[in-house]
């Protein structure tokens, strides 16, 4: 909605004190591949910059995306350092915890919308994009460019001096100082410095400048350190905005500037440098890949700009080699920055490189939001063609490159079509010829194919039944460890079932990518495997959804060379793991063509031919990374060094470490050999010391526990506190069943989520398994492989775990459970057959044959069908053998399900076994291996089922069995339902959702320090049928709300409820043991219910939908459930998505925190906050009045009052505790003064700004909350005006006509400026309007007043309305649209003197069936903030088109018009229907006086015509105040009963006063006349007669009173 007189152009508005005020300096409204939050999501973000020289306190400030809701999201206690930045995620997650990442309760619209930063008063906007920011683009930010220009202090070839120190004193420590003068032993050279004696892989020599070879000096001095000084000059007057050090290095270094440490992120710039550093230190590590040393590593060192001086400066670097035998060494720095430029601030613009949390780019970083158009899509071609580029407009050029480099303003100028004759990557962008600004980079990849591809076979061009990946490194040759800049195209299958490289095929992916060789032993295979990192055109990582797999930037192309000729050994076990609920990488089969020679893409069937770009069949695999779609653990920030953040999430492994990974071994030297425990994520550069120490200590505690308890015979099992035992068992089973010979000791991954246990997995690298060509994995009937294949039961910690009979039994249980599902032979065969079918094995030239011909000599050297059959047979045989090693499970008959009472149950007993069973769902096996006390031995007698029963049975065999077997089988279960039904859409509802709980209160935080608000989330299910319902196998879909979850057997009686919770400990703390007993399931992983709304999916045991919907936190969804202490409760009966997604079918819970599972809080008491005084006039004080609307007294002792604007914690609702034994009688009032609830100002009621009040009932003994008894809100009010309920006790909170403490409230205040006519549903095309009239006696200044509701309008400053004036608000602009104004006046007969005002907000209309029109007046600001704009309700109309409102005004051509001036605007009796008369106004004494009285004596108590009747009396009589009026009095014979009569008239439409007859016997006391009769009614006038009987002395008079 648009405010009055807005500019038609976008502007960024900053208050006059902009130098001191924070500003919205940058935001990103389409963050696809940029900044991640702590959940690994990429939400929108907003950056706030403090440009001032002192800290900016943003506590209780607001961010909003709605100009009409300026207090939409409130900052917690947070400050921004001088010149600093604060990034707030606009995610909708609504997180406001000081010291943690901040998230608003809204997201930004990429289509453009308002964005503002608002002072704590909730109205003063200090920085805004108004009326809306322009459309936004993926990964492009928008904001205020820095007025800076680039500067280079020295280049990578600059002059320098260097020396190799020979002792601690030569040259000593002063060499880093600016005034040090290099003498003997120092060499003048040009950068870079170093040497390279082995140039086989990467040659550093071209990087070495004149006199820069340091090898001889370093060898002679036997020192791995080299001192380097680079001088540079800074001219006088330069104002430095930023500094950047760029370094190419191998292997380590540390830097100083003018003798002081050069800082980045408050840490001295260093890489692979010991601490402390000595004169002869050597690097602590190496570059992971030599080629990385040729790429600049950048350091933002702006924080050290204060060290720069005018004149000569010195950058000093101590460079270090890793050891004396190293063949190479390099140091080559470059120092640059930006300086502030003179001139006006630059207008808001787009940035190609977002800089959240840092200074924005200058004009050089501004991007034009345009992209070049290409006349041809990416793809293949056979003949030369001309490429046409377009998209530039006047004042713009197109610049392009053909070598893959980034196009700049100096690149090739496009002037005519570009000829394309060879494989090419054309990159182009638009350049402004006036500002130099650059547009988005567009790119196309055209792959020239020769006849071996173009005419591959009789079908034409090369095609495949698998997707085809085309990679081109444009002559880069064979890949190595170094990443190559490549283009990747992906061609998917069309409706024919084939992907094709024909020239008319369009790739579904055409992206830049960094590609390098992957693997250790496999890196030497002739069939390479590769890592692929998808990138955007700037070179930043880009998340991409590939072939239906969730978006990410990192992928692996695994060649499956030699060992896995079925291409399935990784795929099948990953799929089994996922089916078992353990995430493993998703996979896709593809064929790969890799052009490495720069020639046309070719397919040469001759093996090992250099021109053969065909690489064969590959498996495209997700890499192991953190993320909600991959390993679902929390994303740790380096700053998270205390609990709970320091506790996760980690991904670690047993493997050989990479150079960028932290490694360690335990105190028992586990794991032995060349491998180590390695933290895979976070990488070393992002890993805080406290984080690595936490995991090292945590793992050591586990190891200590399991070894100690094993040696003690496992009399205790505290090791379970550290590991997810079931996940560890599954991981070992997957390794064992496939006989992965490298399992557990290589590529063996683990993960630990925040505040969670260590889980084994995900699986990785199973190529040497399942009877591969490795040879160690051939036998099916042994536990582990031959030779040095891993012994799954003896390796490291596993050896101790398998000494525990309980872990062994878990292993047996899990194996037999998995054999029922994921590892069932039929399921495994189905998985493998599915992969086989993708190859179309019956085709004479299928992908497998092509691969075999390429790598094994001929297409018939192997057979994909045979390879698959080998795997199937081997796995079937092995699984059968494993089955035989364990005790066989008994059978149960009949099958589980609904049965009648009296059903008999029997068991099949495995040979040599005894069957034990229970009927209460407990385990018949006791811990330790014995028989449970509740177990019964089956003797052949059938078991009779008379009520719903869960039967659990195991078979026990005698004897001793080797690891991992035990005496017991796994359990079998059968649930027999008697008079119960399985849950379904007909009988089960999602009844409540606690998606945004309050954060832990003090007691909860003390009991559970790691708890966060999200730990208290839950979903409630309710049985809505008349019969019992069982929840067995009800499931929540993946991601709804977190990981997939299947519920166990759980009976719900009619009306009963059950809970699925996030954290059982947190839930129990808040709701108690009785509610916790209703928990039927817990979801796992770091995910949870999204504060901004998300999908919920509940399925029955057969997979049919029970409930599937999205909840939300905006529009009409209940507000208090969004973080203010309530749960969201479903109050409807329907089970359709449309039912659940109707926000009117939900309400905020009355119970604080909700009432999950059971009803523990009592019903509402009936006590309400009835009246408040918040804007006082001396000697008044703030006051709160409570009223008991209930039928019985209520003890309020221990209840709480709070004025928290936005509660985050329970304590926020406990500002004032009502004293014990405060009893409020039925119908009674309790007035609580400011001295009681706010003796020290802790709960001052703000009448200038408005606020909220909470009345919360609680248990006086322990302070536990019960209900939100009341929670009214109030707006600013005029001084002395009370806010309260009208009607008394039950109505809405509104300004009142008068303050009535401790008694019934007065009527609602009706202001002098009123909404007097509404034409809401015109007939035909006649326009709508709203009439506003001034019924008072003074001119009213409407400047900054607003109209809100169905239509919005803001009155401009200086707008006034005279007494008795009526103005008409319309939807059009009467000034700019004069013809429309003339038509309006003609249609309605509006006089020229009546002002038409508009337009109200575009597209706004008055509701046809009902609506709201609310007029708000400006309230004087608080003294301490004179610029504050506070608005109170002046008049409000909530009308309906049906009775009791005048119903004839809807669609008939009539409007509704105000009757009188003292009735409340939402009172139907205040309105009548009739012909529209915009501008005719309404009555009232002031309007009557102005229109009628000609004498200056126009006051209500004056008598203009001197007839003895005051003007106000004549107004009520309806008589003429300008001529003498005599009251009609006489003696009436009255048929023999004479009487003295006074006849008078009363205008009933004049409700601002009352007129009635009074009588007196002696003129000293007057009472209402005993006899006052209605004679007749004519229109709005009543004729009345007051009389006294003759025979006694008496007097009659008329009295008039002004209505309140």
From TrEMBL:
InterPro entries: GH29D-like_dom (IPR059177), Lamin_tail_dom (IPR001322), Lamin_tail_dom_sf (IPR036415), Spore_coat_CotH_CotH2/3/7 (IPR014867). Keywords: Signal. Residues 10-133, 1155-1303, 1306-1422 form the LTD domain. The keyword Signal applies. It comes from the Bacteria. SUPFAM superfamilies: Lamin A/C globular tail domain. Residues 1-20 form the signal peptide. This is Lamin tail domain-containing protein. It comes from Luteolibacter rhizosphaerae.
């Amino acid at each position: 909605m648009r405010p009055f007189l807005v500019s038609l152009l976008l502007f960024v508005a900053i208050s006059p004190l902009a130098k001191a005020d924070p500003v919205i300096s940058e935001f990103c409204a389409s963050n696809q591949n940029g900044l991640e939050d702590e959940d690994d999501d990429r939400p929108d973000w907003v950056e706030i910059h403090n440009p001032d020289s002192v800290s900016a306190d943003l506590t209780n400030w607001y961010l909003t995306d709605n100009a009409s809701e300026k207090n939409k999201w409130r900052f917690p206690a947070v400050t921004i350092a001088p010149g600093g930045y604060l990034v707030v995620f606009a995610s909708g997650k609504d997180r406001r915890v000081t010291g943690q990442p901040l998230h608003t309760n809204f997201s930004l619209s990429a289509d453009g919308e308002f964005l503002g930063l608002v002072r704590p008063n909730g109205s003063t906007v200090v920085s805004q994009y108004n009326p809306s920011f322009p459309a936004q683009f993926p990964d492009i930010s928008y904001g205020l460019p820095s007025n800076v220009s680039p500067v280079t202090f020295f280049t990578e070839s600059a002059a320098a001096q260097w020396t190799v120190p020979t002792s601690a004193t030569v040259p000593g420590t002063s060499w880093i100082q600016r005034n040090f003068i290099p003498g003997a032993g120092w060499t003048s050279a040009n950068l870079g410095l170093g040497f390279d004696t082995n140039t086989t892989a990467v040659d550093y020599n071209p990087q070495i400048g004149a006199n820069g070879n340091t090898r001889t000096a370093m060898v002679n001095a036997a020192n791995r350190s080299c001192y380097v000084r680079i001088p540079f000059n800074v001219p006088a007057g330069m104002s430095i905005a930023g500094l950047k050090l760029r370094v190419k290095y191998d292997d380590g270094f540390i830097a100083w500037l003018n003798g002081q440490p050069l800082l980045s992120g408050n840490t001295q710039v260093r890489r692979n440098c010991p601490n402390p550093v000595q004169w002869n230190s050597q690097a602590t590590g190496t570059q992971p890949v030599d080629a990385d040393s040729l790429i600049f590593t950048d350091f933002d060192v702006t924080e050290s700009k204060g060290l720069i001086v005018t004149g000569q400066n010195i950058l000093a670097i101590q460079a270090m080699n890793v050891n004396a035998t190293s063949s190479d060494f390099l140091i080559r720095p470059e120092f640059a920055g930006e300086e502030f430029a003179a001139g006006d601030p630059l207008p808001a613009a787009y940035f190609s490189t977002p800089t959240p949390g840092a200074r924005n780019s200058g004009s050089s970083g501004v991007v034009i939001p345009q992209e070049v158009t290409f006349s041809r899509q990416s793809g293949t071609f056979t003949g030369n063609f001309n490429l046409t580029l377009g998209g530039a407009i006047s004042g713009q050029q197109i610049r392009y490159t053909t070598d893959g480099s980034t196009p700049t303003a100096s690149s090739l100028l496009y002037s005519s079509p570009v000829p394309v004759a060879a494989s090419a990557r054309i990159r182009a962008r638009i350049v402004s010829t006036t500002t130099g600004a650059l547009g988005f980079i567009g790119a196309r990849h055209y792959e020239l194919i020769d006849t071996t591809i173009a005419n591959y076979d009789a079908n034409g061009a090369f095609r495949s039944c698998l997707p085809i990946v085309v990679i081109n490194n444009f002559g880069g040759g064979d890949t190595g460890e170094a990443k190559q800049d490549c283009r990747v195209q992906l061609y998917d299958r069309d409706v024919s079932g084939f992907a094709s490289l024909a020239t008319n095929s369009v790739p579904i992916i055409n992206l830049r990518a960094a590609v390098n060789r992957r693997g250790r032993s496999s890196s030497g295979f002739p069939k390479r495997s590769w890592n692929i990192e998808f990138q955007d055109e700037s070179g930043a990582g880009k998340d991409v959804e590939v072939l239906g797999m969730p978006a990410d930037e990192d992928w692996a192309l695994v060649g499956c060379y030699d060992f896995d000729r079925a291409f399935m050994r990784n795929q099948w076990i990953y799929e089994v793991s996922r089916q078992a609920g353990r995430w493993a990488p998703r996979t896709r089969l593809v064929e790969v063509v890799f052009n490495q020679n720069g020639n046309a893409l070719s397919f040469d069937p001759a093996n090992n031919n250099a021109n053969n770009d065909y690489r064969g069949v590959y498996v495209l695999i997700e890499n192991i990374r953190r993320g909600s779609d991959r390993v679902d653990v929390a994303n740790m920030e380096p700053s998270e060094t205390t609990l709970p953040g320091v506790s996760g999430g980690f991904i670690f492994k047993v493997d050989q470490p990479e150079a960028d990974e932290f490694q360690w071994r335990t105190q028992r030297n586990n794991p032995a050999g060349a491998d180590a425990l390695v933290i895979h994520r976070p990488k070393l550069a992002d890993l805080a010391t406290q984080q690595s120490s936490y995991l090292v200590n945590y793992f050591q505690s586990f190891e200590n526990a399991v070894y100690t308890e094993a040696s003690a015979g496992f009399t205790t099992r505290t090791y379970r506190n550290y590991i997810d035992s079931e996940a560890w068992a599954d991981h070992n089973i997957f390794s064992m069943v496939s006989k992965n010979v490298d399992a557990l000791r290589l590529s063996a991954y683990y993960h630990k989520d925040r505040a969670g246990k260590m889980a084994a997995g995900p699986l990785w690298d199973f190529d040497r398994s399942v009877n591969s060509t490795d040879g160690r994995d051939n036998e099916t009937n042994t536990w582990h492989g031959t030779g040095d294949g891993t012994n799954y039961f003896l390796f490291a910690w596993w050896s101790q775990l398998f000494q525990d009979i309980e872990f062994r039994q878990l292993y047996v249980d899990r194996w037999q459970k998995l054999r029922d599902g994921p590892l069932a032979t039929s399921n495994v065969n189905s998985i493998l057959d599915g992969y086989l079918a993708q190859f179309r094995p019956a085709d004479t030239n299928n992908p497998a044959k092509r691969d075999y011909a390429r790598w094994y000599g001929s297409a018939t050297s192997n057979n994909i069908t045979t390879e698959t059959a080998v795997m199937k047979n081997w796995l079937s045989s092995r699984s059968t053998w494993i089955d035989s090693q364990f005790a066989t499970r008994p059978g149960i008959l009949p099958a589980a399900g609904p049965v009648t009472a009296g059903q008999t149950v029997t068991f099949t007993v495995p040979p040599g076994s005894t069957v034990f069973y229970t009927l209460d769902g407990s385990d018949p096996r006791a811990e330790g291996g014995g028989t449970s006390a509740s177990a019964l031995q089956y003797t052949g007698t059938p078991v009779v089922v008379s009520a719903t029963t869960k039967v659990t049975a195991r078979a026990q065999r005698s004897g001793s069995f080797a690891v991992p077997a035990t005496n017991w089988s796994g359990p079998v279960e059968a649930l027999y339902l008697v008079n119960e039904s399985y849950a379904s859409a007909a009988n089960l509802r999602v009844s409540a959702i606690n998606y945004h709980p309050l954060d832990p209160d003090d007691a909860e935080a003390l009991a559970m320090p790691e708890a966060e608000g999200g730990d208290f989330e839950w979903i409630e299910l309710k049985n809505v049928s008349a019969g019992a319902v069982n929840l067995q196998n009800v499931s929540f879909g993946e991601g709804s709300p977190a990981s997939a979850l299947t519920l166990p057997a759980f009976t719900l009686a009619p009306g009963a409820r059950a809970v699925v919770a996030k954290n059982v400990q947190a839930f129990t703390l808040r709701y108690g043991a009785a509610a916790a007993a209703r928990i039927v399931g817990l979801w796992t992983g770091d995910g949870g219910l999204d504060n901004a709304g998300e999908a919920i999916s509940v399925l029955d045991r057969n997979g049919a939908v029970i409930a599937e919907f999205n909840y939300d936190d905006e529009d009409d969804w209940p507000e208090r459930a969004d973080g203010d202490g309530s749960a969201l409760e479903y109050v409807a009966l329907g089970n359709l998505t449309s039912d659940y997604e109707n926000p009117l079918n939900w309400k905020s819970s009355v119970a604080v925190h909700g009432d999950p599972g059971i009803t523990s809080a009592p019903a509402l008491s009936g006590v309400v906050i009835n009246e408040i005084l918040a804007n006082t006039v001396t000697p008044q004080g703030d006051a709160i009045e409570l009223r008991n609307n209930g039928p019985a007294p209520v003890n309020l002792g221990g209840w709480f009052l709070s004025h928290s604007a936005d509660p985050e914690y329970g304590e926020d609702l406990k500002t004032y505790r009502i004293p014990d034994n405060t009893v409020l009688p039925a119908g009674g009032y309790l007035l609580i003064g400011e001295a009681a609830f706010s003796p020290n100002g802790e709960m001052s009621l703000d009448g200038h700004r408005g606020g909220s009040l909470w009345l919360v009932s609680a248990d006086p003994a322990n302070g536990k909350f019960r209900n939100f008894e009341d929670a009214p809100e109030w707006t600013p009010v005029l001084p002395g005006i009370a806010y309260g309920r009208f009607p008394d006790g039950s109505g809405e909170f509104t300004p009142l006509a008068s303050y009535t403490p401790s008694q019934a409230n007065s009527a609602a205040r009706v202001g002098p400026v009123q909404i007097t006519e509404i034409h809401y549903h015109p007939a035909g095309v006649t326009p709508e309007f709203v009439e506003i009239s001034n019924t008072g006696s003074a001119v009213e200044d409407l400047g900054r007043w607003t109209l809100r509701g169905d239509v919005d309008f803001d009155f401009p400053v200086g707008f006034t309305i005279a007494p008795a004036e009526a103005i008409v608000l319309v939807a059009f602009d009467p000034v700019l649209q004069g013809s429309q104004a003339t038509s309006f006046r003609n249609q309605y007969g509006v006089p020229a003197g009546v002002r038409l005002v508009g337009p109200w907000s575009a597209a706004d209309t008055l509701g046809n069936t009902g609506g709201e029109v609310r007029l708000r007046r400006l309230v004087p600001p608080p003294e301490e903030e004179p610029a504050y704009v506070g608005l109170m309700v002046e008049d409000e109309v909530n009308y309906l088109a049906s009775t009791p409102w005048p119903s004839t005004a809807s669609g008939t051509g009539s409007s509704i018009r105000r009757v009188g001036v003292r009735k409340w605007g939402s009172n139907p009796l205040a309105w009548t229907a009739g012909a529209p008369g915009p501008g005719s106004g309404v009555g009232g004494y002031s309007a009557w006086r102005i229109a009628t009285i000609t004498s200056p004596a126009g006051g209500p108590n004056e008598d203009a015509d001197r007839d003895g009747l005051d003007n106000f009396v004549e107004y009520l009589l309806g008589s003429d105040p300008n001529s003498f009026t005599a009251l009609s009095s006489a003696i009436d014979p009255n048929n023999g009963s004479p009487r003295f009569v006074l006849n008078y008239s009363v205008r009933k439409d004049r409700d601002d006063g009352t007129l009635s007859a009074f009588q007196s016997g002696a003129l000293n006391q007057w009472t209402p006349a005993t006899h006052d009769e209605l004679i007749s009614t004519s229109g709005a006038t009543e004729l009345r007669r007051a009389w006294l009987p003759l025979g006694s002395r008496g007097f009659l008079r008329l009295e008039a009173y002004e209505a309140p």
